[in-house]
Amino acid sequence: xxxxxxxxxxxxxxxxxxxxxxxxxxxxxxxxxxxxxxxxxxxxxxxxxxxxxxxxxxxxxxxxxxxxxxxxxxxxxxxxxxxxxxxxxxxxxxxxxxxxxxxxxxxxxxxxxxxxxxxxxxxxxxxxxxxxxxxxxxxxxxxxxxxxxxxxxxxxxxxxxxxxxxxxxxxxxxxxxxxxxxxxxxxxxxxxxxxxxxxxxxxxxxxxxxxxxxxxxxxxxxxxxxxxxxxxxxxxxxxxxxxxxxx
Length: 247
Hints:
Helix content is 39%, strand content 27%. By secondary structure, the protein is of the alpha+beta class. It contains seven helices and nine strands, in the order E-E-H-H-H-H-E-H-H-E-E-E-E-E-E-H. Strands 2-1-3-9-8-7-6-5-4 form a nine-stranded antiparallel sheet, with helices on both faces. Strand 1 (5-10) and strand 2 (13-15) form a beta hairpin. The protein has a single domain (5-241), classed as START domain (Alpha-D-Glucose-1,6-Bisphosphate, Chain A, domain 4, 2-Layer Sandwich). Helix 1 (17-35) runs parallel beside helix 2 (44-58), helix 1 crosses helix 7 and helix 2 crosses helix 6.
């Protein structure tokens, strides 16, 4: 096990761990209301785990059923915004400077879909994660509320065909986790270009999410906090060891 500390930078400004945790704590009751679950009692660390377990207990079909109306509305809106944006993108960016750990160990952990705790760790990292699973076609199905959006959305992440991404690879980073987000019909609606490199004290994660250009700027800005929450939780879990990652 390796102790890590994470320094978050959003829009060029350092953000404290306490501020990131406060954003997560404020989102949890909103997510619970959306999915029709009770807010777990206790401290945030306990709530994070219990809420993830409650969502997992529902199962994918029930999650899709409970969110079906909101997902239909967000799908219509998302596809319209993508088409009107005509391939143009705006990016939501968050940088994490990690003391301790290393790039290879984290990326291997993050991308290992065969980990016994994979779905649990994906769900627990952010209260706005309702479903993250792998389809039979090898795509990643995601149902989440992005940033400050009023509605959850469903999309499929393709980690193979990256042609529609607008953010180029930076050769100064040694690893990346990049994918194209598609609607169920296959329309590219965005994507991720997350890049990582080792530093003298640990590693640096440069996290980029591409959204359609016409998405309101407030939603894009709020997603920086979404990124900070999920990746800080993932990094802390990856270097605590799987046995106690979410205890």
